[in-house]
């Protein structure tokens, strides 16, 4: 199409495989058939080229897809992921186009070009601009005189509407199911057939929705569009007066940024669990006063940008809390290049409810614990600070596991899922099973017999254990068990198994 | 050290406590015996469903079986053991009471029931599993008083944390209440190896995975039958010995149950044998027009005498009473099976096999040596069978009559699915495995196929295979038998507990037909047969036109035109000879007499096929092979089938006349033939048969050949009497098709679902026989299909029952309101204010075509907003004038299939050929006979049938339908495997192959198949798949 007047022109961008593209970008050069599947109906909704080459297409049942490709991989469709990706795309386009509307149902975006006509007089220019902003993203673009036609991919600017819509199926026009069903039951399955019937007659038969639809097709009624509003992203920036090579040179500036952040958060009664410090060196080509975008959803930041992520065990807002953790994180860090600008941004905040002053020491203790944990995690790494979690299980060692500390652990709750009754006492801390000579022990009571859970891969075929309480020669009470020989054919008395110590009671 | 026989297990569950235990009653009995137990009690939960099987096992495994059951009340268990027959009746009555006040599969019990029911001959074992921490001592004292030294505390040791405290609590309780303690394993499995299976079934029952359920699962295998040495370590000697003492009190044995027939079937003033004989002779005179042939009379006397000796008169009279009811209600019926060997049954009117026409073998039905009760199956019209069932309930009452149970067991699919879910496999993955599993693949069994699919790569893959194999055959739940009744003189619950079935107004006993046979109780089978319904409907239509009522017996016999039709394999819809295999055989066998038809029906069966009788018979019939007999005795047996044994009775008779078997031995042979694969008894019979025949001067080759043929019958050949019963109906339906085709098709269509063919295929067949079929019409159709006579010619008027989404009650309202001259407009119908969905269904079916022209216009006229807004009512005037374009032929066809399941328009392929230029060139069905055998050919058609008989060695027969007829395609096994994706689910299939023509029989041997379903505008074409 040659140069067009873009007055009253709409551009619709459709992204039909967002989640799949997201996934493929994490697996570059992957030739395996990949699918996104709708979990409730087990049907394919998105398929990569390798899958399509084998005859797998959207709408196919997953069980049929398996017949066509033995080695495919699939993930379940997550609409919230696609919403997030769509938002990110809108953010990018927003840098060039102010009039954006989101089509969340169909993963699309409308761009109204009327106000841009001075800047983008040619359709091709617009298309090129969009292409640059959406590099590495698959999309379909269509221009038309109104939003609905643009979405449908029907361009009526060069010919009459009736001709432009010739043969276009109504089933993809987004009509309500019952309305579409009624129309197709009457043989009205394409737009042109519908347009041939006088609107008043259609309206009197089928009601307002069909009238609205036709008026939208004709551009006489504008649909309700969800205007895009950019996220409120907190971004603070400071330019340095000299290059800084080490952390000590950044301390003052960082504190200043955090102070501003505290003020902002205090005013809005918000707190954060994660902040990002953005460090610019001379290689950065852009404007550090603006939040730098990644070239795509997952790539690293542009050349010349280092980003440091700081997480907190619980939501915080005060300078005192944030700075100490930041300091721990950065004090030994080596920068890739001398820093010339520094920025701070926050992606997500949460409402903060002020806690009343209490004399309750446990709450004070919780706070101290939280602070300590924040510092330890920052110093050592989040996964290095762990606590014991209880689980349902038979074998004692499977009833406990060490997990990184989370916010829930700070409540110091003593309640835990206990499948043990008071009759099933066992030591809180287990040893690694240590072979013992039972002749040096005095056994008490009757055994408790436990068979390892056969459904666990490393336990299948493992032998029974008989647990008992026993006292050693020096009077210590231990928790011991006899591990039967899984292959023992002899009677229990002659079972050539082994005794182990698994924990101490005192 | 415990001596043997110093322990009796008094509480154990079999897998008849559905999804609560992991071993069969037989396994429990065998293991208890192997461990040296004195006795074992099978005490399933509120049930005795497993005791007969356990008892049968004790016939070969000598251990005392105690009959009992346990009941659960808030996790406390109450186990009752029958000490004698009276105790058993009390137990059965309690189970019945608890089951009948709860929905199917459940029961309602509280400990108070033990105080209110008479259980004076039962022992009670109480285990307070739920309440031991705070026991109800008051209840225990009451029970102790009520049961008077027959109450004990049951103790178990599971080596769980609470064990010690539990034992201490029970000891204390014993002292407080004066109840002695007795030990038990409370076993749910016979061996520790079954623990994974136990976990699996418990998880299936809870609807969770094993991992999710682990907190509730036993973490060791102590709930099993343990060795005496282990028991001695766990329990005090006194507790163990007490179990033996209790076992000695329980002396009830199952085979002491006395069954008594209902007595009201014998009128006052008669003795049973007198009344039976009177009715039999009256019937004989009716059957033989007052001139009973001497041979028949002689046989009847013998049969009556044998029945009297065995005291089976009531049995025959009970069935006679039922069929007399059916006769009075004009419900068609026919007895079949071994009963058709009986002259007595023929004279009473139970069966329809004329003994003058067939060689009967009464010993096949009853003999003194058989030592089992007779079995009479009676088929009734399937749509009226319920009337017969209700008659039985009304006559005998629900306390005296109940249906036998059927145990629904796990098959491969259900086992794989349930085990997989319990192990945590995603359902989608299990469905994929099942979809790819070819259960009829005889080369690779299912485990090998799953391994080939990579199941073992999953960490639980081996468990999936092993547990599925174990779970296959396990009972899932009890269901009702289709029509097997047990009727008793007194309360049936004295014999066996009764529980509610899923259907309202139905009750079912807890034993299945195998249990009934084991205990030699009598059962009456009231079965349904669709063809009887179809025949009655057709005969009624003929009678309406002719003014003369026709019964089955009135149909003219041996009509040559009927056989001519059958010889051309024109047998769609004809009873028993409409399958692909039968239609292939008809042009070869060319039946010309009734007996030929009997042979036709019997010969296309696994028995004759695997015994290689088919080809010899056909060759001899065609004169291509001489018919010879070694002697007159064999000739007497085999003459009617040209020297080839085809019927089961012939095999039995040969064993008697040629090998010298007695009647009883021959009967054992008959049983072994049905189960030879598992029992391995046939080698013993081989020796007897061959030696016996050699002794009588037969050649060894002949003897060995005969034995091979007998082996083939292991897959079940038909008894002649059974084939003859079916041939009666086959001939009747063929006669109707030949002479009254419209009535024939309408009878079938109104009796669907039944038979091999869908409504679509029957209608196509009717049109190919020049029977005009009129479309659904709001003004012409009734609910049922009808034969109408516009212009004097019989036509089929399709009925409203064909309309998907139209309910009969709405149709009745519509028909009641329809004016004699018919509706004049759609608005007139709308004024009836019928439900919207039903109106839409009628519109979709084209029922208003005469009023509005086509379905689009109908729907346009039916759509209105005027009901919502008054002011629009005026605005709607003139809207009906707007004319929508009519649908094209293809769209019409699609909608026909969607709304009716058939089309009266051009065949889909004819339409496709006109509208889809990309259709390949292909030969029509009607053109194939003009080709030469061996020629390469391409055919294309709708897939209307896929069959893979068990005798076909993996070969699949696919039936394609085009606009000129049907094409029979043969897909060899290996080709079927490699091209499975093409043909398995195809609706439209292209086949390139080679044609084979043998007389009238034409096949296309498939070479290359292509699924062309994407060319079809509709997936609504249905095929009849038998895999």
From TrEMBL, chain A:
GO terms for biological process: DNA repair. Keywords: DNA damage. It comes from the Bacteria. Residues 25-152 form the UmuC domain. Belongs to the DNA polymerase type-Y family. PANTHER family: BLR3025 PROTEIN, BLR3025 PROTEIN-RELATED. This is ImpB/mucB/samB family protein. It comes from Aliidiomarina maris.
From TrEMBL, chain B:
SUPFAM superfamilies: PHP domain-like. Residues 8-75 form the Polymerase/histidinol phosphatase N-terminal domain. It is an enzyme of class 2 (transferase). One of its GO terms (molecular function) is nucleic acid binding. Keywords: Cytoplasm, DNA damage, DNA repair, DNA replication, DNA-directed DNA polymerase, Nucleotidyltransferase, Transferase. Transmembrane segments: none annotated. Pfam families: DNA_pol3_alpha, DNA_pol3_finger, HHH_6, PHP, tRNA_anti-codon. It catalyses: DNA(n) + a 2'-deoxyribonucleoside 5'-triphosphate = DNA(n+1) + diphosphate. Its main location: cytoplasm. GO terms for cellular component: cytoplasm. Its EC number is 2.7.7.7. GO terms for biological process: DNA repair; DNA replication. The keyword Zinc does not apply. It is found in: Cytoplasm. DNA polymerase involved in damage-induced mutagenesis and translesion synthesis (TLS). It is not the major replicative DNA polymerase. This is Error-prone DNA polymerase. It comes from Aliidiomarina maris. The gene is dnaE2.
């Amino acid at each position: 199409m040659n140069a067009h007047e873009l007055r009253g022109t709409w551009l619709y961008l459709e992204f039909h495989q967002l989640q799949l593209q997201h996934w493929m970008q994490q697996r570059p050069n992957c030739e395996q058939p990949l699918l996104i599947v709708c979990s409730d109906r087990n049907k394919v909704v998105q398929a990569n080229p390798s899958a399509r080459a084998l005859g797998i297409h959207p709408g196919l049942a997953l069980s049929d897809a398996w017949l066509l490709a033995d080695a495919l991989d699939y993930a379940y469709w997550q609409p919230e992921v696609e919403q997030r990706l769509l938002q990110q795309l809108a953010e990018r386009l927003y840098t060039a186009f102010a009039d954006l509307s989101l089509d969340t149902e169909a993963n699309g975006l409308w761009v109204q070009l009327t106000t841009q006509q001075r800047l983008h007089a040619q359709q091709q220019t617009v298309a090129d601009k969009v292409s640059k902003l959406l590099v590495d993203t698959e999309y379909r673009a269509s221009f038309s005189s109104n939003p609905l036609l643009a979405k449908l991919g029907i361009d009526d600017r060069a010919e009459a509407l009736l001709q432009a819509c010739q043969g276009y199926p109504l089933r993809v026009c987004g009509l309500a199911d019952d309305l579409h069903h009624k129309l197709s039951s009457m043989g009205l399955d394409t737009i042109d057939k519908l347009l041939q019937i006088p609107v008043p007659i259609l309206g009197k038969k089928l009601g307002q929705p069909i009238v609205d639809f036709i008026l939208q097709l004709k551009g006489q009624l504008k649909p309700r569009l969800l205007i895009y509003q950019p996220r409120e992203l907190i971004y603070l920036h400071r330019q340095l007066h000299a290059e800084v090579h080490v952390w000590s040179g950044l301390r003052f500036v960082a504190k200043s940024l955090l102070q501003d952040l505290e003020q902002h958060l205090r005013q809005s009664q918000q707190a954060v669990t994660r902040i990002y410090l953005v460090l610019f060196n001379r290689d950065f080509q852009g404007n550090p006063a603006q939040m730098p975008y990644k070239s795509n959803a997952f790539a690293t930041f542009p050349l010349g940008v280092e980003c440091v992520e700081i997480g907190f065990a619980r939501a915080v807002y005060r300078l005192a809390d944030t700075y100490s953790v930041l300091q721990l994180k950065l004090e030994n860090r080596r920068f890739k290049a001398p820093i010339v600008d520094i920025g701070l941004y926050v992606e997500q905040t949460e409402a903060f409810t002020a806690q009343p002053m209490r004399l309750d020491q446990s709450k004070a203790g919780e706070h101290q614990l939280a602070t300590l944990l924040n510092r330890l995690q920052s110093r050592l790494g989040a996964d290095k600070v762990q606590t014991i979690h209880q689980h349902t299980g038979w074998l004692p060692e499977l009833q406990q596991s060490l997990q990184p500390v989370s916010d829930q652990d700070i409540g110091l709750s003593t309640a835990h899922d206990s499948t043990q009754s008071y009759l099933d006492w066992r030591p809180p801390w287990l040893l690694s099973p240590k072979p013992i000579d039972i002749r040096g022990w005095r056994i008490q009571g009757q055994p408790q017999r436990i068979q390892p859970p056969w459904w666990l891969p490393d336990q299948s075929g493992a032998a029974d254990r008989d647990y008992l309480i026993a006292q050693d020669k020096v009077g210590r009470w231990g928790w011991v068990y006899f591990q039967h020989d899984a292959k023992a054919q002899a009677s229990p008395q002659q079972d050539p198994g082994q005794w182990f110590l698994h924990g101490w009671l005192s | 050290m415990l001596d043997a026989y110093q322990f009796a297990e008094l509480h154990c569950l079999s897998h008849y406590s559905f999804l609560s235990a992991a071993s069969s009653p037989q396994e429990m009995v065998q293991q208890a015996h192997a461990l040296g137990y004195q006795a074992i009690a099978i005490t399933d939960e509120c049930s005795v469903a497993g005791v007969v099987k356990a008892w049968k096992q004790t016939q070969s495994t000598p251990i005392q079986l105690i009959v009992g059951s346990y009941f659960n009340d808030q996790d406390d268990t109450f186990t009752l053991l029958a000490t004698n027959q009276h105790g058993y009746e009390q137990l059965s009555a309690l189970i019945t009471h608890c089951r009948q006040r709860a929905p199917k599969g459940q029961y309602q019990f509280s400990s108070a029931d033990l105080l209110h029911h008479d259980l004076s001959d039962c022992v009670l074992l109480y285990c307070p599993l739920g309440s031991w921490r705070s026991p109800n001592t008051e209840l225990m004292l009451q029970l102790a008083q009520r049961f008077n030294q027959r109450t004990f505390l049951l103790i178990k040791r599971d080596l769980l944390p609470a064990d010690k405290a539990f034992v201490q609590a029970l000891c204390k309780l014993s002292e407080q209440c004066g109840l002695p303690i007795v030990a038990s394993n409370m076993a749910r499995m016979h061996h520790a190896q079954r623990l994974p299976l136990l976990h699996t079934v418990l998880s299936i029952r809870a609807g969770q995975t094993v991992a999710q359920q682990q907190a509730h699962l036993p973490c060791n295998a102590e709930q099993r039958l343990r060795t005496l040495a282990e028991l001695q370590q766990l329990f005090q000697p006194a507790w163990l010995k007490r179990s033996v003492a209790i076992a000695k009190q329980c002396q009830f044995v199952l085979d002491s149950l006395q069954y008594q027939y209902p007595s009201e079937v014998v009128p006052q003033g008669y003795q049973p044998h007198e009344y039976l004989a009177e009715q039999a002779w009256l019937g004989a005179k009716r059957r033989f027009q007052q001139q009973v042939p001497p041979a028949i009379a002689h046989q009847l006397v013998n049969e009556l005498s044998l029945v009297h000796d065995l005291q089976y008169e009531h049995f025959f009279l009970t069935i006679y009473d039922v069929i007399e009811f059916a006769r009075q209600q004009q419900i068609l019926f026919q007895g079949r099976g071994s009963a058709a060997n009986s002259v007595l049954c023929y004279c009473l009117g139970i069966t329809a096999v004329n003994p003058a026409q067939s060689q009967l073998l009464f010993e096949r039905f009853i003999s003194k040596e058989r030592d089992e009760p007779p079995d009479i199956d009676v088929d009734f019209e399937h749509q009226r069978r319920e009337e017969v069932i209700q008659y039985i309930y009304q006559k005998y009452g629900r306390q005296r009559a109940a249906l036998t149970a059927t145990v629904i067991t796990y098959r491969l699919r259900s086992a794989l699915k349930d085990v997989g879910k319990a192990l945590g496999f995603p359902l989608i993955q299990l469905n994929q495995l099942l979809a790819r599993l070819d259960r009829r693949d005889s080369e690779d069994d299912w485990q090998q196929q799953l391994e080939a699919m990579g199941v073992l790569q999953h960490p639980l893959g081996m468990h999936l295979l092993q547990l599925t194999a174990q779970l296959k055959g396990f009972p899932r739940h009890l269901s009702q038998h289709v029509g097997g009744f047990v009727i008793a003189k007194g309360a049936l619950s004295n014999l066996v507990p009764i529980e509610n079935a899923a259907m309202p107004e139905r009750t079912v006993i807890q034993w299945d037909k195998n249990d009934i046979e084991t205990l030699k109780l009598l059962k009456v089978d009231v079965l349904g047969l669709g063809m009887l319904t179809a025949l009655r409907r057709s005969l009624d239509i003929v009678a309406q036109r002719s003014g003369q009522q026709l019964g089955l017996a009135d149909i003219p016999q041996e009509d040559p035109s009927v056989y001519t039709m059958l010889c051309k394999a024109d047998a769609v819809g004809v009873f028993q000879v409409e399958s692909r295999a039968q239609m292939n055989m008809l042009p070869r066998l060319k039946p010309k007499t009734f007996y030929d038809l009997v042979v036709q029906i019997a010969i296309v069966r696994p028995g004759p096929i695997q015994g290689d009788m088919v080809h010899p018979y056909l060759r001899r019939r065609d004169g291509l092979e001489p018919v010879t007999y070694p002697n007159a005795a064999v000739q007497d047996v085999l003459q009617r089938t040209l020297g080839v044994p085809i019927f089961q009775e012939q095999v039995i008779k040969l064993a008697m006349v040629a090998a010298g078997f007695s009647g009883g031995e021959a009967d054992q042979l008959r049983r072994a033939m049905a189960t030879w694969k598992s029992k391995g008894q046939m080698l013993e019979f081989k020796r007897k048969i061959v030696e016996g025949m050699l002794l009588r001067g037969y050649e060894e080759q002949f003897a060995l050949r005969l034995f091979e043929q007998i082996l083939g019958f292991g897959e079940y050949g038909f008894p002649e009497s059974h084939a003859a019963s079916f041939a009666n109906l086959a001939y009747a339906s063929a006669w109707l098709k030949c002479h009254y085709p419209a009535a024939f098709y309408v009878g079938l269509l109104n009796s669907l679902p039944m038979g091999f063919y869908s409504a679509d295929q029957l209608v196509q067949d009717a049109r190919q026989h020049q029977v005009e079929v009129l479309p659904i019409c709001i003004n012409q159709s009734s609910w049922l299909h009808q034969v109408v006579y516009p212009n004097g010619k019989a036509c089929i008027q399709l009925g409203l029952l064909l309309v998907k989404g139209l309910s009969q009650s709405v149709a009745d309202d519509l028909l009641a309101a329809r004016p004699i001259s018919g509706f004049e407009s759609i608005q007139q119908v709308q004024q009836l204010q019928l439900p919207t969905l039903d109106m839409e269904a009628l519109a979709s079916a084209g029922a208003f075509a005469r009023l509005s022209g086509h379905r689009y216009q109908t729907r346009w006229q039916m759509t209105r907003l005027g009901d919502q807004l008054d002011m629009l009512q005026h605005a709607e005037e003139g809207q009906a004038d707007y004319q929508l374009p009519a649908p094209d032929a293809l769209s019409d066809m699609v909608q026909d299939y969607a709304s009716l399941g058939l089309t009266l328009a051009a065949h889909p392929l004819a339409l496709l050929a006109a509208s889809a230029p990309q259709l390949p060139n292909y030969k029509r069905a009607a053109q194939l006979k003009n080709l030469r055998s061996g020629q390469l050919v391409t055919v294309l058609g709708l897939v209307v049938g896929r069959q893979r008989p068990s005798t076909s060695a993996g070969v699949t027969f696919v039936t394609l339908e085009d606009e000129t007829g049907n094409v029979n395609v043969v897909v060899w096994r290996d080709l079927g495997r490699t091209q499975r994706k093409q043909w398995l689910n195809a609706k439209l299939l292209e086949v390139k192959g080679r044609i084979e023509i043998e007389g009238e029989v034409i096949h296309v041997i498939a070479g290359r198949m292509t699924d062309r379903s994407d060319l079809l505008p509709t997936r609504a074409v249905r095929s009849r798949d038998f895999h």
